[in-house]
Amino acid sequence: MSFVHLHVHTEFSLLDGACRIPLLVKRVKELGQPAVAITDHGVMYGVVDFYKACKAEGIKPIIGCEVYVAPRGRTDRVHELDAAMYHLILLCRNEEGYRNLCYLDSCAFTEGFYIRPRIDKELLRQHCGGLIALSACQSGEVPRRILAGDYEGAKAIALEMRELFGEDGYYLELQDHNLPNDPAINQGLIRIHQETGIPLVVTNDAHYLRREDAQM
After folding, report:
1. Contact by Cβ (8 Å): 44, 65
2. DSSP string spanning the chain?
3. pLDDT profile of the chain (216 residues), mean per 10
4. Which of 16, 38, 149, 205 is most buried per CB count within 10 Å?
């Protein structure tokens, strides 16, 4: 079965990702995967190098970003309320999506920066065209609500995102990294899928290329 990584952090996820772009693309080709995404934390610095490297190897580039979403508004900066931002994966479906993602990422720095570059849901509603969203890792809003015991709140957020991105534009992201919270999150996501029909997608929160890189 063909598999494509949709949640990947390169060296441009500073102090976090260790996937060097040329080596990443070569590894994807070596594994026989037809495409790969780039989803660095809050930035798009590596997008051009990534696109060129993929094209040179005959791999389809999927341009994206793991954005930080402010819990309130992007201009709110009260530490007790605004420090715990949510993660959300955004992937470009087409040129419109690329332009919107570039705009969102720019606004995250120029309007929303507080600890990290942040957008908010108001901005997302205005510039969601051409984008596909994934529910992200344990730091996504839906997983966090599941872990907090707020299943109905998690389900409501998932339905809000589906309404925003469309029937084929929002996916619940299943991950299994042998982390203690993975089973509870996945069970909650599967339940949401069963009750709402929101589709599932299996991802790895990939920060390095090979098992032997883990210790680094």
Report:
1. yes
2. ----B--B-BTTSTTT--B-HHHHHHHHHHTT-SEEEE--BS--TTHHHHHHHHHHHTPEEEEEEEEEE-SS-TT---HHHHSSPEEEEEEE-SHHHHHHHHHHHHHHHHTT-BSB-EE-HHHHHHT-TTEEEE--STTBHHHHHHHTT-HHHHHHHHHHHHHHH-TTSEEEEE--SS-TTHHHHHHHHHHHHHHH-PPEEE---B-SSSGGGS--
3. 92 95 97 97 98 98 98 97 97 98 98 98 98 98 98 98 97 96 98 98 97 88
4. 38
CB atoms within 10 A of CB 61: 19
Model-level pTM?
0.97
Q: What is the CATH T-level fold of the domain 66-203, as seen in this structure?
A: TIM Barrel (3.20.20)
